[in-house]
Each structure stands twice: as structure tokens, then as C-alpha cells.
Amino acid sequence: MPISLLVKTVLGRVKEPSSWSGVAVLLAMFGLSHEQTGAITELLAATAALASVFIAEKGDRS
């Protein structure tokens, strides 16, 4: 896979709110303290929720 295609794919995924939820789950798995994990997860969840309001899903251009 060419690097330009890989970068395009990753950037496309980053624009999807569900990707931010996945990042929050991954961070929770890396041995951070409960307080740190909670704070990071809540911040990412809030960011994903806000992004989902403004970013259209693929195919929805209204």
C-alpha cells in the first residue's frame, strides 16, 4: 500500500466520530490510572459527540 493511500485512509477515518470512540477505548486499555482513563475517555467522548453534530456521515450531504 503506497504511503499516500495510507495517509488518505487514516485521515478519512479520523474525520469519523466513531473513530474517536475507538481511540477512547484503546486509551482505556493501556494501563492508565482509573482517574486518567476516565478524564481522557470523557474528553474524547465529548469531542466525538460534538463532531457528530457537525460532520456529515458518508453519503449524507444534506
UniProtKB/TrEMBL annotation:
This is Uncharacterized protein. It comes from Magnetococcus marinus (strain ATCC BAA-1437 / JCM 17883 / MC-1).
